Amino acid sequence: MVEETIFSKIIRKEIPADIVYEDDLVLAFRDIAPQAPVHFLIVPKKDIPTVNDITEDDEVMLGRLFSTAARLAKEYDVDESGYRLTVNCNSDGRQEVFHLHMHLMGGRLMQRMG
Ligand code: AMP
User: Fold this and answer.
1) Model-level pTM greater than 0.85?
2) Which of 3, 9, 63, 100 could form a disulfide linkage to 48, CB 3.0–4.6 angstroms apart?
């Protein structure tokens, strides 16, 4: 049994979020503390705590995370300027919410990695 997070409540519409995309597998909404002019979180509707919990059964959903990122980047006009997709895992990765999610950040020049 997976422990629920605030993202499960957002998925079930029990708490509000600024939702920008939804389909059968994923939901995307604005990050509450944006680190860039465009900052969305793309989350699977299935409760998966971290990347470590992904299985082969999740491969279609994982593809949907990326195709949703591409769709949103185009829709919010950062596809040509560019953007960063980030998935944090556990403490060294600075993961804070233990429901798998992809950050899409764009609209400014990102810091170099490392
Ligand atoms: P991470 O460190 O990858 O786990 O990032 C979690 C992200 O979730 C952070 O960028 C938070 O600002 C964001 N966040 C937390 N609670 C909410 C919320 N209720 N609505 C939107 N974004 C949230």
Assistant:
1) yes
2) 100
